[in-house]
Specification:
about 375 residues, alpha+beta, 6-stranded mixed sheet, 5-stranded antiparallel sheet, 9 helices, 21 strands, about 20% helix, globular
């Protein structure tokens, strides 16, 4: 468990962060630039000293102003990956990795060089200097150096922010491997909802130096009241699903979830793979009766449970179809269809509507490995 209750003043900006989050999987600090995400991580790391408060990780107190405890960064056993790799330019990749290894006494190490090199696929880079690496390669080496310090928690401060789309797609699978294969607790800072939806298990939504909301990803992203912070245009539901069957002759995949089955454009995944998919509110239409002779393949019976405040010509509806689902319709459609809380409707979803870029694979129990 990460326990954070700390405050400090940075110029005219007041940081007063309080939350508790599990250390299972990835905890994402999410919010707009300038909301206090990096400063919160720096308080965890010991790079920024709070004026008051208490910080603990899995029962180990890192800072407690009342008790006079303030562990220096090197004693906190937290790995840190910055936006830029910050590799030592005069050392080659092997030497940069060895620096991380040397930071931890041999009896306390739970990772070795060969294992981390294989996990991150950087064996062919060991003799190179940082200047000869791409942005994605630098970040993989930086991650490896942090892992070889055998941290109890890995802090990642917008590690993909300086990379282009292709390099981001290169790094994301390695971060998923850290979560799924090493089962290493990670605090991940991002303002990118796509990264959040693909990686995070728990979300801390930050706003104006405070934690505005904390909870499981699916729960936080389904809250209409958080739309100004989580993003209106990209807003939608996040569903945990299982690959139930493939229909290769039709180019379709059937995904089973608590609300039924979702037909989507073919995913190259084996049956029984657990995944997480996002359905944007703008991709969900509403009908009062089950449609006939229509090209849309998915129609889910549900009930309207919440209606957002109208903003411009649109309004967001929260539906219960066995799981929460959002739909965005025009104010005129809401009026003409008499859409109101408690009304039974059908949610219509195109097979091509899922956000494939934020598709996150979740490991099956038999895929999980014993933590290091």
């Amino acid at each position: 468990m990460i326990e954070m209750d700390a405050a400090c003043r940075l110029g005219s900006f007041d940081l007063d962060v309080r939350f508790a989050a599990p250390t299972d999987g990835i905890v994402a600090l999410f919010g707009k630039s300038g909301c206090g995400k990096t400063s919160t991580v720096n308080m965890l790391a010991g790079l920024l000293r709070p004026a008051r408060g208490r910080i603990a990780v899995n029962g180990t107190v890192l800072f407690d102003s009342a008790a006079g405890i303030d562990l220096p960064p090197e004693r906190r056993r937290l790995g840190y990956v910055f936006q830029e790799g910050r590799l030592f330019p005069h050392l080659d990749v092997r030497q940069n990795l060895a620096y991380g290894l040397k930071r931890t006494p041999a009896p306390e190490r739970h990772a070795d060089l060969d294992q981390i090199v294989a996990l991150l696929g950087i064996g062919h880079l060991l003799e190179r200097r940082p200047a000869a690496l791409s942005g994605g390669e630098k970040q993989r080496v930086a991650i490896g150096r942090a892992l070889l310090a055998s941290p109890r928690l890995l802090l990642m401060d917008e590690p993909l922010a300086s990379l282009d789309a292709a390099r981001k797609e290169e790094i994301l699978p390695f971060i998923e491997q850290l979560r799924d294969e090493l089962r290493l607790p990670i605090v991940y800072v991002s303002h990118d909802s796509g990264e959040l939806l693909r990686l995070a298990d728990t979300v801390v939504v930050m706003s104006d130096g405070k934690a505005a909301a904390v909870g499981p990803l699916e729960e936080v992203m389904s809250r209409l009241d958080l739309r100004p912070l989580t993003g209106r245009y990209e807003a939608g539901a996040v569903l945990r699903a299982r690959v139930a069957a493939q229909e290769p002759e039709l180019g379709l995949t059937r995904l089973a979830f608590p609300g039924g089955e979702l037909l989507v454009a073919r995913l190259d995944l084996p049956e029984d793979t657990e995944i997480r998919v996002r359905l944007r509110a703008r991709d969900v239409a509403i009908a009062l009766e089950r449609p006939k002779d229509i090209s849309i393949l998915n129609a889910f019976r549900g009930r309207i449970v919440e209606i957002g405040d109208g903003d411009g010509p649109h309004v967001d509806l929260k539906l219960d179809i066995g799981v929460p689902l959002w739909a965005r319709v025009t104010l005129r459609s809401a009026r003409d269809l008499d859409l109101r809380i408690g009304r039974d409707v059908y949610a219509l979803v195109k097979a091509v509507a899922i956000d494939r870029h934020s598709l996150g694979r979740r490991p099956r129990p038999e895929d999980e490995t014993v933590p290091l």
